[in-house]
Amino acid sequence: MRLAILGTRGIPARYGGFETLAEELSARLAARGHEVTVYTRPRYAEKGLEQWRGAKIRTLPTLSTKHLETAVHGFFSAVHAAAKSYDAILVCNAANALASMLPRATGTRIVLNVDGIEWQRAKWGSLGRMAFRASEILATAIPHVVVADARVIQHYYRERYGLQTAFIPYGGDLPAPKGNDTLAKLGLAPGGYALYVSRLEPENNALAVVEAYKSVPGDLPLVMVGDAPYAREYIARVKSAADSRAIFPGAIYGEGYRQLLAGCRVYIQATEVGGTHPALVEALGYGRVVCYNATPENEEVAGGAGIPFDAHRPESLAVVLRRLLDEPASGSVWMERAKARVQEQYLWNDVTDRYEAVLEGKPLLP
To answer: Which helix H or strand E contains 263, and what residues bound it?
Structure first.
């Protein structure tokens, strides 16, 4: 098939969950013989790079503002895609539901991954929340198939809108890293640090993590990987609240990210809003000891293979971390559970099978 993926920041992945999905899925679909194009925003594109892991890259402009960047790029991508008459398009983010009308009108099959419940994010004001609520409604009417990456999101759309969605999660079976040079640059040793990976935005609770860590004894570094283009004030608060053990290397992707994830002693997932978070799945896949904020979405992914805490009570994370550091041998049980969880539920080939089926128009079990 001739396929496209639009609505993400593009590939190579340099931002979040949708970008991970775009890269991993497009590479596997291309390897299966499909022609895949991924629409990419200029800020995240590599100059002169026209193909990545077998998928074509199409860079189109947008407006680099907090409220318009996604919608404007989604619109330009949809106009271009409508003219190309793809067999099917995977549209990411319910905010792009309206734009997907354009390629649908030309007869292209539209599959929409709605992501999480976007209007719940703290970064949006009242107008932003209204726009995302309207997009949710459009998402139930325009695409041929709606994809939920978590059972919790699937339940939300069924209960609120009576819509049956297709459940397709993320994969967590990443390749082993090729070395430890990223760790060396940061002065870290394998198994010698705690790791947090998320966009540094309020609903991802970076502030709660650094506050909790101040009451954890010892000299184990806390590596806070992430950034956010429109959250400078919040990031400054997080950094000022952290103690001297905290390291803020910014956003790290690709091989460097895999090295950090595979080498940490403890991985901390503190997200509060969204569906399935790829970093959580990937940390489990590398067999890390995972501590996670006990939201329904994170509980669903961890499935008994991680240790819960309450991000609204930072002291609960501190208790978990102190116990793990006091009893390091206890981590081996969690590591085995983590690996088994991903092998059972979160393999990229299985994810690709399911996306390939819905893009082709084949029935998919709920």
So the answer is: helix 254-263
